[in-house]
Amino acid sequence: MKSIMVGYDLNKTGQNYDALIKRLKEYPTWWHHLDSTWLIRTECTAVQVRDELGKLLDGNDKLVVIEVTSNAAAWRGINQSGTDWIKEHL
Questions:
Q1: Which tens digit of pLDDT belongs to each residue from 35-46?
Q2: Residue 6: how many other CB atoms lie within 10 Å
C-alpha cells in the first residue's frame, strides 16, 4: 500500500468541503492534522486519486497529490497521535 499526500485549496466563496472530506475518510487509512492536507494509504496511484477527488472540485480549486512512500520525513508541532501515524505509515 502507498502513502499519498493530498493538499487542496477550495477557492469558491462558501465552498462545501463535506463531499471531499467524506471521500478522503473512505480510504483505508488516513491522517488529517493540518487544515487542507491529508495523508492517505491506498493501492491507487497518485493519478487515480487526483482523478477521483478532482470530480468533487470546482474548476478554480487547486489539488496536489504526491506519493510519499519513503522514510524521509520531518515535521514540527504535530501531536503524538499524528507523529505516531506518520512513523507507522511512511
A1: 899 999 999 999
A2: 22
